[in-house]
Design a protein that fits this description.
19 helices; disordered N terminus; 43% helix; D-Maltodextrin-Binding Protein, domain 2; four-stranded mixed beta sheet; five-stranded mixed beta sheet; alpha/beta
Length: 451
């Protein structure tokens, strides 16, 4: 799934392509609504129809922020181009499928794409993404958090423009941490939070469902232990070397089992997704959870709706992702969205210019505040409006600097599918799980077995 708003910088420069950030209300502006309407009428626009070139931006679903940015950058272009938006399916797999089918047919109606990080290597290796010139690459990565740059890179080349960068943080109830004697200003381990929760009859939330979120969790655990799910990439999928039997992967399996089989796990842990984790954390049994920044806005919304006491989010604290081992920094999950420029676009240069406008610091700050999706540019986290809306912004930025992407490979779907099959349910994971998963995934990559 695409990370929940709810996955993942050039300095501020005064140019025509970078509109000043508006203090707009949290509703889709009229201009953006016009762009959305235009997307249904001109999704096949492009520059070949004469007049002002229309760039079509295929977006993941959000609360209207990308359409607003399209309208802003259309205005900033001053007649050189306009941007229409076309919304992709809600789930990441559906987004990938629709784009792959069209790009495989060299569809020229796609100019810009909002891409989930795991799919970027596949699109780049297939030749679907236009080359990003060196000068553009320097501008769009200046001041960008390291995790977002890594997520937009394939084969040592920047192949997409970092837009927003998501990550999970460790949410904790201040009262629970205080009662346990935990100093949340210092790094904590999974063992520490499980022990603290069990002693007080509280929950530790993580995503144990058989879904993409399970791969996200396992990858973060392995990376935090100093390993990688893929140790060596190769052009021939049969030659890819997996790290699922490494010491780091074995340690990750221990932690996964510890959490899932503990008294701090919910009875429905094997079906728990991000929303379920947030619900448990809001309850009187809430203790700790790893989850995306959306949970804070969700709690405030529930207070406003009258379904949650104001004292609940007042008790929320945020810290960097738990460590697997005390002396090794955590590697939080990396999510978010990068902008891919279609290699088949008739207006690649204009699309690159539009991508720079969309990802300006001003526009990322607007998108962070209005849609809740963290920026990829570090400077945005110091924006007063961002800090007012997200007091946890400094922790999110620190997490993004430490974040690691999921396995970068053109065969990501096969790798993730194998992990989800073998590592589920998490309470059954043991020292043999990694070997079983490696055997299955390797057989799939060789073409000897189907998922």
């Amino acid at each position: 799934m695409t990370e929940i708003p709810g996955q993942h910088p050039p300095e501020r420069r005064a140019t025509a392509a970078r509109p000043a950030r508006s203090r707009a209300p949290r509703r889709l502006a009229g201009a953006a609504a016009g762009v959305v309407l235009a997307s249904t009428l001109a999704a096949c626009g492009g520059g070949g129809s004469g007049g002002v070139p229309t760039l079509t931006w295929y977006t993941n679903p959000d609360s209207g922020g990308q359409a607003e940015l399209a309208a802003r950058c259309t205005d900033a272009a001053e007649g050189r181009y306009r941007i229409s938006t076309a919304v992709l399916p809600r789930d990441a797999a559906g987004q990938r499928e629709q784009l792959v089918r069209r790009l495989a047919a060299s569809d020229t109606s796609i100019d810009i794409m909002s891409l989930d990080p795991p799919f970027i290597p596949e699109f780049a290796a297939a030749g679907f993404l236009a080359e990003i010139p060196e000068d553009v690459a320097e501008r769009v990565t200046e001041g960008v958090v390291q995790g977002a740059i890594e997520g937009a890179t394939w084969d040592d080349e920047l192949v997409a423009v970092p837009f927003w960068a998501n990550t999970q943080v460790l949410w904790y109830r201040k009262s629970v941490a205080e009662a346990a004697g935990l100093d949340m200003e210092e790094p904590v381990t999974w063992e520490q939070i499980v022990q603290a929760a069990e002693e007080q009859g509280k929950l530790v939330g993580a995503q144990g469902a058989r879904a993409e979120s399970l791969t996200v969790w396992l990858n973060a655990l392995i990376e935090s232990a100093g390993g990688s799910i893929i140790e060596e990439n190769a052009e021939d999928p049969a030659d890819i070397e997996l790290g699922l039997t490494s010491d780091a992967a074995t340690r990750a399996a221990e932690v996964m089992n510890l959490v899932a089989s503990s008294d701090a796990a919910s009875p429905a842990f094997s079906t728990e997704n991000e929303d379920a984790s947030a619900t448990g954390f809001e309850s009187e049994n809430g203790g700790f959870q790893v989850n995306y920044p959306f949970v804070y806005a969700r709690a405030l919304g529930a207070v406003e709706a009258g379904s949650l006491e104001a004292s609940v989010p007042e008790d929320y604290g945020a810290a960097v992702y738990p460590r697997v081992d005390p002396d090794e920094p955590a590697a939080p999950p990396l999510g978010g969205i990068s902008l891919g420029i279609s290699a088949f676009s008739p207006d690649v240069d204009l699309a690159l210019e539009a991508a720079e406008c969309i990802t300006s610091a001003e526009n990322q700050a607007f998108y962070f505040v209005n849609d809740g999706n963290p920026a990829s540019k570090a400077e945005v986290f110091d924006d007063p409006e961002v800090l007012e809306s997200f007091p946890q912004a400094p922790v999110i930025r620190e997490s993004l600097e430490l974040a690691k992407p999921r396995p970068q490979t053109p065969y990501y779907s096969e790798v993730s599918g194998g992990i989800q099959r073998v590592y589920h349910p998490p309470a059954s994971v043991d020292e043999n799980t990694g070997e079983a998963a490696a055997e299955l995934i390797s057989a799939v990559l060789r073409g000897d077995q189907l998922l």
